[in-house]
Amino acid sequence: MFYGEVINTRDVITFQGNSVEELKREFEISVDDYLEFCRERNEDPDKPFSGNFVLRISPELHHRLYKKAKLSGKSLNSLIEESLNSTKV
Could you tell me the pTM of the whole model? Predict the structure, then answer.
């Protein structure tokens, strides 16, 4: 018995099968059922976040952050991610 679960969603979508072919078929059925359930409830399906987003800042701030990251021996991305992680949401 094979078992699968769609990850990176708040909703639980599972499927199982006794062969790879059956598992693929059950996956498609489970996703179709989930999408139909969302339509019936007039809700958008939950989609995983990519981890990427565009942020527009001034060139001056961009330069200051770049310099701070460089002095810290970090990438600009790491510096900003650490800063965001330390912020209470």
Answer: 0.57
CA–CA separation, 3 and 18 (whole Å): 9
Residue 89 has pLDDT above 80, yes or no: no
Angstrom distances, CA of residue 5 to CA of 15, 16, 17, 54, 55: 6, 9, 12, 30, 32
Distance, CA of 30 to CA of 36 (rounded, Å): 10
Cα dihedral 21/26/28/29 (nearest 10): 140
Together in a domain, 58 and 32: no
Range of the domain at 70: 54-89
Terminal CA-CA length for the chain: 42
Q: Which residues pair with 14 in a beta bridge?
A: 5
Neighbours of 21 (CB within 10 A): 9
Are 14 and 31 contacting, i.e. CB atoms less than 8 angstroms apart? no
